[in-house]
Amino acid sequence: MGKWVNAKGWLKDYAPDNKTQAKQAAIQNFGEAVIFIRPRCPKCKSIKLVCYGIKGNIRYYKCLCGNKFKAIEKEG
Ligand SMILES: [Zn+2]
User: Fold this and answer.
1) Least crowded by CB within 10 Å, which of 22, 35, 47, 67?
2) How far is the CA of 57 from the centre of ligand 1 (A)?
3) In sequence order, what are the residues at sequence separation of 6 or more whose Cβ sits closer than 8 angstroms to the Cβ of residue 43?
4) How far is the CA of 35 from the centre of ligand 1 (A)?
5) DSSP letter string over 30-74?
6) Residues of the chain with pLDDT under 50
């Protein structure tokens, strides 16, 4: 059986302020970045797409204009 702990302050590391600071620190300390090309609708060039399926390295997108197309992931 578990034991109740004196709860006061036990979540202080998870307080919203600390969490935000930790997140910002994690982002600032993040070392490497890679560039990815955002897919665009080949018909209307929009980037407002809905990904409706992923199979291996192929992603299936549907554009707001109704056009459906697939995006093939390229080895970086
Ligand atoms: Zn489109």
Assistant:
1) 35
2) 21
3) 63, 65, 67, 69
4) 23
5) -------PPP--TTT----EEEEEEETTEEEEEETTS-EEEEE--
6) none
